[in-house]
Write a sequence for this structure.
């Protein structure tokens, strides 16, 4: 699990990839945005896009899916807003879209010590590295619970202790077998 303590401004992370099919573009378009350039490949050829393209809400849904299934999961308590949503290039059938998250800001809550606010720039790029959409998402994220805090030296000591105990048990068993 990733907590607010794990976010650092300037950090960039590749979140995941998604392959966009013509069938999916048409299905989503028919249900949510029935413009000809989302649902009819022949009519789309005559549009300003010169072909079928994914709807903006479809791209948003893909980013939400990739963010929600990425490991490690983020301990999001609530989404607070999306700002500066931009559709920069059309996403087309056959595109492989890659999502990147850049941490812009981390603020501990002044009223609740168990949480804070993280602002991330989300960028979805096609297989040629061209950004097709971007936005800034602000989320309320939990702080790491005290029960999960364990200083690094304690982890190292416990590994050493376990290794030592295992070695000691092996020596004792060999000695006892003689």
């Amino acid at each position: 699990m990733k907590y607010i303590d794990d976010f650092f401004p300037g950090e960039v992370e590749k979140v995941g990839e998604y392959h966009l099919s013509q069938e999916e573009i048409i299905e989503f378009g028919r249900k949510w945005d029935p413009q000809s350039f989302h649902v009819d490949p022949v009519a789309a050829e005559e549009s300003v896009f010169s072909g079928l393209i994914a709807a903006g809400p479809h791209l948003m849904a893909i980013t939400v899916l990739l963010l929600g299934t990425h490991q490690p999961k983020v301990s999001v308590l609530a989404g607070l807003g999306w700002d500066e949503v931009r559709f920069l290039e059309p996403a087309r059938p056959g595109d492989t879209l890659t999502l990147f998250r850049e941490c812009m800001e981390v603020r501990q809550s002044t009223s609740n010590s168990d949480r804070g606010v993280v602002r991330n720039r989300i960028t979805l790029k096609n297989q040629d590295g061209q950004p097709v959409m971007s936005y800034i998402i602000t989320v309320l994220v939990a702080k790491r619970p005290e029960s999960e805090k364990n200083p690094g030296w304690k982890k190292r000591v416990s590994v050493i202790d376990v290794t030592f105990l295992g070695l000691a048990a092996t020596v004792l068993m060999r000695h006892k077998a003689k």
Observations:
- The domain at 4-144 is CATH 3.10.129.10 (Thiol Ester Dehydrase; Chain A).
